[in-house]
């Protein structure tokens, strides 16, 4: 495919880049509702839907915030999905227990998927390193946590960073920090940090700008409903798509409202690959497979029996399909000319017929 290319990044043994189908990540988040059987079923369902990887979030409520119920630590926005919840209580509900990680990672590997996580503090990075994750993911809210980025970037693995809310200068600071720690395999994800996000505030045109500004691979962390926004992002250069995943939205889950169910996730995998296949190159004149269709264009045919010496007119010639006669652009050139010979109705006109 002759589209803009940046060096291929290998996440485990999976090649990620413009030359390869979009890399699709199923974010399990806290939709397992603290049930290990449900979490394992989610891994199996993500594999069946065609996900290339599952992603967890590695934190504890205490590593995220303080167990305090003052106004600072309670979600105040009335239009927020989690309005009224304490931060500590919400994170306790959403956390994936550390002892589950290896079990879920091994299940994913058995299903042919990669598995990794977003660490939220330095100890989480070390924990994931012991599990030999193929990459690290920095969440949007942690993009300004430069010490965390340096820690994750120093582990010798690719680094995926979401950029929700971030200014260009904040992204630059994060990228430079990662590079200073020795990481060159960086993927930046356009993200809108509202839950759910709306298509109208997703601003996908940022994706090619992000790619060109930082000369790195780009993708989308998508919190909108459906698959349309993700599919559109591929046309703008997204190589990686991250979507939250749930078995059944109606059954609930902390992120269920903006998560895809298995059938929808399969559609995401299929349609983003179809969009990638459609990119191709700038090309006019028809592709090789279109050449046979050119015979069904129009050309000039005798629509009546024409006697030798008779004038060609609109009464005895017509422009019709197929295209074995003179092209329609010669219509005016043959009007009023004489026939050199008898021409039966249905004959494709050519210059040997014209006197």
From TrEMBL:
Entry EC number(s): 2.5.1.97
Domain AFP-like as annotated: residue spans: 299-355
The protein's name in its UniProt record: Pseudaminic acid synthase
CDD domains, per database record: SAF_NeuB_like
Gene3D superfamilies per UniProt: Aldolase class I (3.20.20.70), Antifreeze-like/N-acetylneuraminic acid synthase C-terminal domain (3.90.1210.10)
A molecular function GO annotation: N-acylneuraminate-9-phosphate synthase activity
SUPFAM superfamilies: AFP III-like domain (SSF51269), Aldolase (SSF51569)
GO terms (BP aspect): carbohydrate biosynthetic process
């Amino acid at each position: 495919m002759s589209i803009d290319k940046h060096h291929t990044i290998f996440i485990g043994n999976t090649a990620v880049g413009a030359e390869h189908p979009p890399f699709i990540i199923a974010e399990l988040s806290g939709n397992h509702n603290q049930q290990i059987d449900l979490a394992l079923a989610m891994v199996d369902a993500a594999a069946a839907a065609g996900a290339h990887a599952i992603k967890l979030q590695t934190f504890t409520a205490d590593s995220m915030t303080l167990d305090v119920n003052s106004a600072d630590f309670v979600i105040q926005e009335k239009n927020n999905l989690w309005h009224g919840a304490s931060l500590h209580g919400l994170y306790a509900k959403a956390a994936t227990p550390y002892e589950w990680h290896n079990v879920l990672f091994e299940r994913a590997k058995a299903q042919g998927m990669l598995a990794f996580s977003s660490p939220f503090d330095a100890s989480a990075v070390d924990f994931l390193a012991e599990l030999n994750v193929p990459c690290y993911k920095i969440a949007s809210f942690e993009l300004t946590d430069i010490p965390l980025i340096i820690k994750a970037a120093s582990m010798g693995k690719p680094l995926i960073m979401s950029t929700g809310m971030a200014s260009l200068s904040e992204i630059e600071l994060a990228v430079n920090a990662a590079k200073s720690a020795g990481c060159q395999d960086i993927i930046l994800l356009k993200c809108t940090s509202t839950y759910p996000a709306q298509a109208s505030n997703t601003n996908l045109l940022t994706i090619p700008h992000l790619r060109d500004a930082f000369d790195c691979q780009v993708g989308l962390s998508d919190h909108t409903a459906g698959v349309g926004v993700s599919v559109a992002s591929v046309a703008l250069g997204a190589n990686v798509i991250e979507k939250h995943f749930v078995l059944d939205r109606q059954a609930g889950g902390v992120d269920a409202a903006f998560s895809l169910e298995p059938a929808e996730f399969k559609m995401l995998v299929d349609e983003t690959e179809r969009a990638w296949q459609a990119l191709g190159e700038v090309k006019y004149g028809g592709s090789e497979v279109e050449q046979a269709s050119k015979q069904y264009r129009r050309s000039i045919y005798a629509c009546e029996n024409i006697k030798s010496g008779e004038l060609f007119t609109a009464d005895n010639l017509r422009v019709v399909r197929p295209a074995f006669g003179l092209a329609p652009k010669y219509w005016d050139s043959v009007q009023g000319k004489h026939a050199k010979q008898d021409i039966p109705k249905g004959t494709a006109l050519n210059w040997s017929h014209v006197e």
